[in-house]
Each structure stands twice: as C-alpha cells, then as structure tokens.
Amino acid sequence: MRGTQIRSVLLFLLLFLAVYVSLGDGISPEEAKELREEAREMFYHAFNGYMDNAFPLDELRPLSCAGEDTLGGYALTLIDSLDTLALLGDRQRFATSVEWLGKNLRFDINKTVSVFETTIRVLGGLLSAHLIASDYATGMRVPSYDNQLLNLAEDLARRLLPAFDTPTGIPFGSVNLLHGVDKHESKITSTAGGGTLTLEFGVLSRLTNDPIFEQVTKNAVRGLWARRSKLNLVGAHINVFTGEWTQKDAGIGTSIDSFYEYLLKAYLLFGDEEYLYIFQEAYAAAMHYLYHDPWYVEVNMDSAAIVWPLFNSLQAFWPGLQVLAGDINPAIRTHAAFLSVWRRYGFTPEGFNLASLSVQHGQKSYPLRPELIESTYWLYKATRDPRYLDAGRDMIASLQYGTRCPCGYCHISDVEQHKQEDHMESFFLAETVKYLWLLFDLAVGPDNLVEKGPYKYIFSTEGHLLPATPQISLLREHCLYYGAYCRSGDLRQTYFVPKSDKDKKESNDTIFYDSWTKDTYSSDYTTFEPSPVSGSIKGFCPGLNHGQKFGLLYAHSTDERHDYETNQVQQKESTTVESHSVLVLRGQSSDHLVAEYGSDRNDGQTHESDGTP
C-alpha cells in the first residue's frame, strides 16, 4: 500500500515538473489572433444565448435554453456583462444595454440578497459601466447617458447599508432590499463576505461625495483585522455581533480569498496606505504559515496546525495577486502546480486532495470559474513567457469541448466524468472569457480599453474595470505617493464612531428607510480627527506615529479595544518569522503595475519610528 502511494506521488511530481519546465510550443501571432477571436465568439455564444432565452431573468440555463432568477431578479447577467461589451468595442450593444437598464432597472423590491454577491456583481457592474458610458476618453461614451447607472448604484448601496449596523462593523451576509436585515438573519458571515466590499463602495463614495459607503466597508476590514490571531491569520467565518470566530481555518481559498485581494487592490486604487500595511502583514503570515511550496494548505489560525491539505479552486487567483504584489517567483511555481491539476482533468475541481492526490469527495465540480485563467493572464502580462499562451489555448479547448452547450456554457458537475449541468454563472461573461480574450489580445499587440485606454485599471474580484481616474484615486491630495506634498489643515480624515456601543442589543432589527442619509448619519455619530499634518516634503509625512499613519483606529467597545491591545502585546512577544517582503510600486508602465520583490526580512517587528511596515 505504501509503495503504491509513493508511486502516485512520484508520478504526480513528474506531471508537475513536465508542466513547469515546458517552454511552450510558441504560438504565432496568427494563431494568437485566431484564439482571441475564438474567445470573442465564446462570449457572444453565451451572451446571445442569455439575451435570446433568459433575459431579463438573472442567469441562463444553457442546456434547456431557459432562464432563472438566482440573485435578485434584475437581469444579473446583463449587468455583469456590460464592461466586457465595452472592452470588446461593441458600442451598439453596450449603449443599448445601458439605456435599457437606466429605464427599467429597480431595486425597491422585496428580495433578500447576498451583500457580497450583490456588491461585486451588480454594484460593481453598474459602477464600471457608468464610468465607461459617461467618459468621452474611453471611446464608449453613450450620448443619451445621464448618470442613470450611478443613481441606481447609489440606491442599491443605500439598501445594503443596514447590513453594516453591527457592533463589530462587520456586515451581515444578507439584507432585504426593501425592509433591511431580517431579525432572524444569521449572525455568521465569511471573512471574504465582510472584507471584499471596499473597492465598489469606495468608488461610489468618490463619485457621490458621500463618505458613508467607504467608511462602513473600511470599518468592516478593520473589524476583521482587529480580530486576527497572534500569527496574523484570519479565520473563515465570524460572528458579526460578538466578533468570535466560528470557523478558525485559515487559508487563501474558500471564504477568505478576496479579503487578501481587496487589501492590495484598495491600496493600488485609492492610495490608502492602511490597506497596504494590513496586506503586507497578512501576506507575510500567509506565506509563512500556509505556503508549502508550491501548494497552499489550511491551518488553524491560532496554532498553525494543518487542518486541510487541499488545493481549493478559489486559491487559483493567488498567483495573479502575487504578480500585482511583485512576488513573481512563487507565483510562477504555484501557477504551474495548479495548471497541472487542470491538465490532469481538463478543469480544476473545487477541491483536490494533496494527501491522496485525487479529487476531493463532494468537490468534483467545475462551475466555469475564472481564477486560474486570471492568473495566467497576469503572469503572461508580467513575463511574456509563451507557456502561458499554451495554457490559455488548452483552457479554451477544454471549455469548448467540455462545457459548450446549445445556448451557452454549462457547469461541469464531475471533472472526472465531464458531466454537464444546466447552469451558467454570470461571472463566465464577466471574468472567464474576458481574461481569455485579454490574454490573447495582449499577445497580438493590444488595442483595448485596459491596455491602451486613458487610465490604469484595477480589476474587481468580479473582473469589473475600475479606473484610477483623478476623481477616484486622488480624492484627497496627501503625501503617500511620490511627488505629492503634505498640506496643512486639509489632510484630516474623519472616522465615524458610534457614541455608545453599550446600548446595542443582540438583535437584528434594523431601521431602514431614510436612516442612512447624510443628515441622520451625522447626527447619530460623532467624529474624531487625527492631528493635522504639516510639512512640505516628498514621501512620507513627518510627525506621525504608527497608529496615526495607518489609521489603526477601531470603532469597538472598550473591552474589544483591550482585547486588541492584548493581542498586539502577544504578537510582539511571539517568535519572529522569515517571509517574503513585498514592494508595491505604482509605476507608469502599463505592462507592469509592480515589478520588484525583495529578500526575506523579519516580519515580526514593526518599524514604528518611521512608520514603514
């Protein structure tokens, strides 16, 4: 029995090495064009199938050529597809879709929806489309457009705000768009669900000049990070009222994945160094405790004991995130390992057991996920290594021959049997085919909104395009980017803190209606301001202590603050570790957002003297 296991391990290692050392067959420019057009055709096969057979229902059933409402009943797939239409240069369909949504979309409906899914798919889709349709510089300006999608986005976000009315600031997982949070709503939410809202809500704050959206999502991130373990790890699920972790498995996959993603991307888009500081601490811990080169495992957040030796398909976004962070070498190795699983089955199963080297029982499906394709795109963008074009070609072939259905593309319920299931997630159009098209357009010589447009773009976790326009990225001029100057008096940031948390009871009752408007919010909450900063130097502002610099000011009760401070003391006393040092560069090159990664350093210490993490 032991000999058989050793043989299986050796065979799988040989498979991995064969993938890793392959230099690629070398795709010619003509073949890259053909593959780009094939990716475009894939999008329109699915999009037309949805519009002809499912619209205005949420999603398509591609085998039966029918539709179904899966989220809120408001044309979800169309909203999720808007910026892909713009990216492909389809002015007519983009304009027609924007106009239809502006006239027909409504959110005053009695539907209970996921805060996370509604934010990343609907709110993100509306904001991205608004920013494209309203700007002549994008080349996709819609003449009749008059901020209808922005108004819809603001209306939707205000209907989500009651979910954030919790003692911890971490939102409920679901909210009713008409009545707020139900009193029987579960108090348990995932880390990703509470920590993957900052981009969409932050952009909305900047477009509407209302800080409430950004503040509640930033406080949610602070609420999660304040409850990290002494190892700087976070768990998978948490009670939004008590702040207690109900599942302490730490990983980079299911229930946690995009928490890490939005820390870095919020810094890249908004220039807020608090997010960068938290990301660097969290990333160092992940690389030390979760990384077993080239794989990642799940561990107990307190002890770091391995609890789950599993490759989860949602982990596949990680190499792409490492490219953005500048940590290229481990990204290359991990991507090669993940790709070996894809090539073994034709797809990535939801779970692959690293101990038995087989598909995890009960996790055999492939729901058209984009994460591995996304990382393939980012690695090709960073390295121009043709092996990633070979990988993209294999992925197109797998999708075309394994998932193509009469009216779209089907889920695979079993990657070993390649059995099709009658469902197509909206993210197939928002992400999966988008990244495939971008990959081969990049190989041909890009001429699209992302590569040649007027702005740098950050992709949301749903693949929506969020531009780093001055209105979004330079809302407050501050000294956290090179070449800026500290300005006395107008550098203050306002933090909203409840007057008292002790009156909150363990109840989910929510007052909605107009309670989240600017006037009522300002009357119910007090503000405090860090000391103003003066000076006229480039780089970091002088005279800030560590807490002021990174805004580590948590809106918690006295007991919670005491627990946090105790945790900080324990952290300083803990054994220091070696991990990857990440240097994020907001450079001018359109091909490389970041390009450097450093040597190992001592991540157990914080340089409070100069505020450098």
TrEMBL record:
Its EC number is 3.2.1.-. It is an enzyme of class 3 (hydrolase). InterPro entries: 6hp_glycosidase-like_sf, EDEM1/2/3, Glyco_hydro_47, Seven-hairpin_glycosidases. SUPFAM superfamilies: Seven-hairpin glycosidases. Its cofactor is Ca(2+). It is found in: Endoplasmic reticulum. Residues 1-24 form the signal peptide. Keywords: Calcium, Endoplasmic reticulum, Glycoprotein, Glycosidase, Hydrolase, Metal-binding, Signal. Ca(2+) binds at residue 461. GO terms for biological process: carbohydrate metabolic process; endoplasmic reticulum mannose trimming. The active site is at 117 (proton donor), 257, 350 (proton donor), 371. Belongs to the glycosyl hydrolase 47 family. This is alpha-1,2-Mannosidase. The lineage of its organism: Eukaryota, Viridiplantae, Streptophyta, Embryophyta, Tracheophyta.
